[in-house]
Design a protein that fits this description.
Layout: H1 9-22, H2 37-52, H3 55-63, H4 66-87, H5 91-146, H6 150-172, H7 176-204, H8 212-237, H9 241-266, H10 270-291
Helix pairs in contact: 2-4, 2-5, 3-4, 3-5, 4-5, 5-6, 5-7, 5-8, 6-7, 8-9, 8-10, 9-10
């Protein structure tokens, strides 16, 4: 109904009231405004504007939607027929035709408007998801290089990239909804791969470091990756406000422990700092799962 408000002031309010009356269920017909010569003639003026000059009619005309344009043409014919009825003092018949004209325009105008909003939202979500996949792919490449597993990761990266290419091809053809389904597969796959690499570090602890300081640098990077994943997950999953509050509390707790670890590292107490970073990362994993991310283990 927002488009109708552009008719302006009291005229728009009166017309909106008429539209609401026109669209009432038949069971409420006894509550409608009585049909009189003056109300019918006034309604005819408003409906003439609706089918000829309103934003709703212009939207239908420019949509290229055959069903909507046929409905608009039919509504215009109904208005002309209603005017003829008015000229012949057939006010009940005229009122019925005007109601049909309003219904024809408003039904298709709403449908087109909802479709446009849906398409815009799909594009927004798709663009955001693709950016997330590419960011995670970069993180996956970096972590695989750090762990000397670039060769092993190459096959998985190629498969994920192929899925992403498929999504982008679908989006280019205008199938944003289908592209979203496919890119979601790529997002899930790369998220699992990044998490698996990091989780593997924690479980095996087979990496060798020249010094506690070197291990501290590695754990800082691992902690950074989990903060990054949490930020992405919150953005993409949009958790319930009550859940989000708990997630943010966990993130704050993890950041506090991280700050303590950094302070210890400045005093060269790297062993204790490493332990605290592990605690911080464990808390972030809890927050990630709570926010809706898949974390194996």
């Amino acid at each position: 109904m927002n488009v109708l408000l552009r008719l302006g002031g009291a005229v728009a309010a009166a017309f909106l009231a008429m539209v609401l009356v026109c669209s009432q269920p038949m069971a409420q017909a006894d509550k409608r405004v009585p049909v009189t010569p003056s109300t019918t003639e006034q309604k005819a003026k408003f409906v003439t504007n609706l089918v000829s000059h309103s934003v709703a009619s212009k939207t239908i005309e420019s949509s290229g939607d055959d069903a909507a344009r046929k409905a608009l043409a039919n509504s215009r014919a109904l208005v002309e027929a209603a005017k003829q009825d008015i000229a012949n003092s057939k006010y009940e018949q005229a009122d019925a035709k005007l109601n049909q004209a309003v219904d024809g325009v408003m039904t298709h105008s709403r449908r087109l408007s909802e479709g446009s909003v849906k398409a815009d939202r799909a594009q927004e979500v798709y663009t955001s998801r693709v950016a997330s996949v590419k960011a995670l792919m970069d993180a996956y490449t970096r972590v695989a290089d750090e762990k000397k597993q670039a060769g092993k990761a190459a096959e998985r990266k190629a498969a994920i990239q192929q899925t992403l290419n498929e999504a982008e091809a679908m989006a280019a053809k205008g199938n944003k909804e289908g592209a979203l389904v496919v890119v979601e597969r790529a997002y899930t796959a790369v998220s699992k791969e990044v998490a698996a690499l990091r989780d593997g570090d924690k479980l095996t602890k087979t990496l060798k470091f020249d010094s506690p300081a070197d291990e501290y640098v590695y754990e800082i990077d691992r902690n950074d990756s989990h903060f990054f994943l949490l930020k992405l997950t919150i953005s993409e999953k949009n958790p319930d406000p009550m859940i989000l509050k708990q997630v943010e509390d966990l993130r704050g707790k993890a950041q506090g422990i991280r700050n303590d670890a950094e302070a210890r590292a400045k005093k060269n107490d790297h062993k204790k700092a490493i332990d605290e970073l592990g605690q911080s990362t464990d808390i972030l994993i809890r927050a990630l799962r709570m926010a809706g991310a898949y974390i194996p283990g």
